[in-house]
Amino acid sequence: MKMDLMSGYKGVVGLVFGNENSSNEDRYVERLLDRISNGKLPDDRRNAITELQAVVSENKAFQLAFGAMGLPIMLGVLKEERHDVEMVRGALETLVSALTPINHAKGSSNEVQPDLMNTDLLSREEESIPLLLSLLEEDDFYVRYYTLQILTALLTNSRLRLQETILTIPRGITRLMDMLMDREVIRNEALLLLTHLTREAEEIQKIIVFEGAYDKIFSIIKEEGNSDGGVVVQDCLELLNNLIRSNASNQVLLRETIGLDPLILIFKLRGSSYSFTQQKTINLLSALETIKLLLKGGSDADPGKDANKQKNKTALVQKKVLDNLLILGVESQWVPVAVRCAALKCIGDLIVGDSKNLDLLASKVLGEEPQVEPALNSILRIILRSSSMQEFVAADYVFKNFCEKNADGQAMLASTLIPQPYSVNHSFHEEDVNMSFGSMLLHGLTLGENDGDLETCSRAASVLSHILKDNLPCKERVLRIEIEAPMQSLGAPEPLMHRMVKYLALASSMKSKDGKSNNTSGNSYVQAVILKLLVTWLADCHNAVHCFLDARPHLTYLLELVSNLSETVCIKGFAAVVLGECVIYNKSTDSGKDAFAIVDLISQKIGLSSYFLKFEEMHKSFVFANAESSLTHRSFSRSSAASMADIQDVDENDLSERKNTDHPILASILDSYFVNFVKRLEANIREQIVEVYSRPKTKVAVVPSEIEQKSGESDGEYIKRLKAFVENQHSEIQDLVLRNGTLAEDLAKTGSSFQSEQRVSGGAERVQTETLRRDFQEASKRLETLKAEKAKIESEANLYKNLAGKVEADLMSLSDAYNSLEQSNLLLENEVKALRGGGPSTLPDVEAIKAEAREEALKESEGELNDLLVCLGQEQSKVDKLSARLLELGEDVDQLLEGIGDDAGAAEGFEDEDDDE
Q1: Cβ count near 320 (within 10 Å)
Q2: Measured on CA atoms in the order 230, 232, 234, 240, is the torsion positive or negative?
């Protein structure tokens, strides 16, 4: 295996550096290695290793040649000649040179890097790591120093492999920890090595903590002068952050063993020195990173994360960390911007979701008598006045977290929003120290009236959106605020919401033809923040929607903003969301302001497909894509420290070259909550607009009572009501026909534009055209559904017509029958009158009829009696014949006939009893 690796590296040498040169260097390195391995004189071997180290440290070709042949020999020297300190030193120094990159000239990106190859080859040697760790126990200073450098180089380029190997070596990590108690140079190298070793290695982190890492780290920090120390303090804090990052158990050990006092001590600024070196800035940033990790509480997958986070917050507040953070982030404006921003974000993390800490921040006052003011006022002043965009974002983050699920805090801030007279509201900037929070905020919201300071207005609007978020009482309260005009002659006071829309339009009008803002900060940022305020304000607030629609130009301006090609996708998307909220939260009954009218305007001015397309374009923008990633954690290391210490704001010159592009700062202002909120709103908007568009304006509830005659209702009224019902159904059908025609025309336009774009667009536009095609198909399906509903309504209308005809025919029949009854009744009444008056009657003689009936009954009874007598005579003759026959036979006829009548009577009696039962 070893020979295969050597041959492979030799092949690479020939490929990269050329056969002729590489062979010379190979031969030269081979001769030196031969002298080291087979030399008889100790001095000659030492000289050869010194010469080899010199050429390897200066030339990549020699580095590559050494890696192919010299690594096994150097390891042999370290293993077998430990007694010769100079040889061991030379071998270690040569290995350090072979693993160190040489940057004499910048090569091509795909050029072979010999130092990386040598690192990979050495890390694959099974005995290399145990051998190097054993050298740390040597007494010689340079042996330990070079050994640490080699291990650090291996960790830099082959970290995972080395971490796994060190865990398998008994007392391997203990030997490294012992180096922290060595001489200063050794200690500093050990710090670097442990920093690399502990990255994303939870098991190693735990072992190092149990080896007493916390005590040693803070001991070194204190010895070096805390935040005033050099790069060693930075290395210690980076190691500390590696140990507690996403590791709740290590955070618990830190809190419960040495405590947080040594950490808080780092924030104590000595004296009143205003000098901040770059290293001191980096040290404070590293310490603030430690605070941030403690406030995070551990890994997201850890079930005990929240409980640990709360305990960390409690411990930090007990150590007065909030006071120190307010000094760094708010009170001391001579602190570098990067430190102020990090401190403000730590304040935001400290208070979010913690009622006690929220109250604590609300009660804090800053400054010295008599110039003292609440801390929230000072943070608001930073938002309104800071020249740093990053500082505005950090201070805004504090208010975002202060208002998060804090209805009492929102109400407290909103209660201070009391309009001041115009002369006071626009007083000189420096005189607002004694202003209330609300007065200062309204001051910022209305600065755009004369000063044209739309950026300050938008920053204040961002704070106001936090106060209003998910809080209906605050929305209603602020809705009642009216702003006075600069002069009484200019008109009556106007609602604050109308003033915000006015500034939104003003920001749009200040744009030049090339899309660049004439304002120094970019009005795309101003417009987006004001639109975010409107989106937050209108959500679930019917009165806010009503107030917005009170001014007809507001709706017209929004429709133009959505369809304006020069605006950015986010601005058009937010404007579309505001329009959608005017539909889904609209309770107006006014025909010109109701949801139906808004949907009609969207359909006529924009087109439903084009309108819905604005949402999809907004979701694909970099602002929405980066909203989640902007909140993800980035590890703070030595490589990134310098760039973070010198925070640069967005270069407006870069913005001038980017047309129709959203301001980069929006990725920080628009958090993941707002992005998800807009996504949920979009789904509701789509559903509600389709529902409103596809349904009749006047919703008629078809119930059985509509087609049944009501009690006390005349036939004529009933027939009129049925006719009105049928006419209403007919008008609804005609309305649907017109809407379907408009929708079909809109879809046809979308389809034709889709085809033309397909012919001219390249591969980059295929995704958009595919989206249009899907929208077209969905709209076609909706059109088919509407057609089916139309046919159903028409069939119901025909049914109602037939039913009305049938009811009308029945009524005619009833009328005819009623007339016949009236005539019969009239005849009967006439007969009765004639009888009573003794006049001629048409009625038959009743007495004659009765006599005739009696005669007929007598005749019938006499006939029946005659028939009965004949039957009895016949029966008697039969009895006589039978009696004579019995006498002839010698029977006693009288004895036989005795009792026959009695039996018959008894039988009849028995039957009567049965009947009674």
Answers
A1: 11
A2: negative
Q: Choose between 15 and 890: higher pLDDT.
A: 890
Contact of 157 with 119, CB cutoff 8 Å: yes
Tokens of 586: 């609209």
**CA-based nearest residue to 395, from 379, 377, 374, 417:** 379
Q: How far apart are CA 529 and CA 445, in angstroms?
A: 12
For 727-743, give the secondary structure using H, E and C: HHHHHHHHHHHHHHHHH
Structure tokens at 681: 């709103």
CB 445 within 8 A of CB 498: no
Does 396 score more than 90 pLDDT?
yes
Which whole number is the average pLDDT over 133-162?
Answer: 91
Quote the pLDDT of residue 815.
75
Q: How many CB atoms lie within 10 A of CB 75?
A: 18
CA distance 899 to 632: 127
Residue type, 412: M
The larger pLDDT score, comparing residue 458 to residue 664, is at 458
Chain Cα centroid distance, residue 90: 60
Q: Which residues contact 527 (CB under 8 A, 6 or more apart)?
A: 458, 504, 507, 508, 567, 571
CA-CA distances (angstroms) from residue 904 to 342, 894, 895, 899, 917?
A: 130, 17, 16, 9, 20
DSSP calls for 232-295: HHHHHHHHHHHHHTT-HHHHHHHHHTT-SHHHHHTT---TT-----HHHHHHHHHHHHHHHHHH
Which range, of 105-119, 315-329, 613-627, averages the lowest pLDDT? 105-119
Q: What is the dihedral of CA 578, 580, 582, 584, to 10 degrees?
A: -140
Higher per-residue pLDDT: 99 or 754:
99
Q: Is the pLDDT of residue 345 over 70?
A: yes
Instruction: Report d(CA 312, CA 251) in Å as an integer.
Output: 8
Q: Closest by alpha carbon to 571, among 581, 556, 558?
A: 558
- Other Cβ atoms less than 10 A from the Cβ of 747: the count is 21
End-to-end CA distance of the chain: 124
Bridge partners for 343 per DSSP: none
Is the bond preceding residue 114 a cis peptide, omega within 30 degrees? no
Type of residue numbered 12 = V
Provide the percentage of residues in the chain whose pLDDT is more than 90: 37
**For residue 638, which of 180, 237, 340 has the smallest C-alpha distance?**
237
Pair of tokens at residue 400: 């975002």
- Count Cβ atoms below 10 Å from residue 899 Cβ, excluding itself: 10
* Residues 37-65 as b or e (16 or more Cβ within 10 Å = b): eeeeeeeebbbbbebbbebbbebbbbbbb
Q: What's the pLDDT at 668?
A: 76
Residue with tokens 């087979």: 38
pTM (two decimals) = 0.73
**Residue 732 predicted with pLDDT over 80:** no
DSSP 488: G
Question: Which residues make beta-bridge pairs with 374?
Answer: 365
pLDDT tens digit sequence for 791-812: 878 777 788 778 777 777 777 8
- pLDDT of amino acid 579: 94
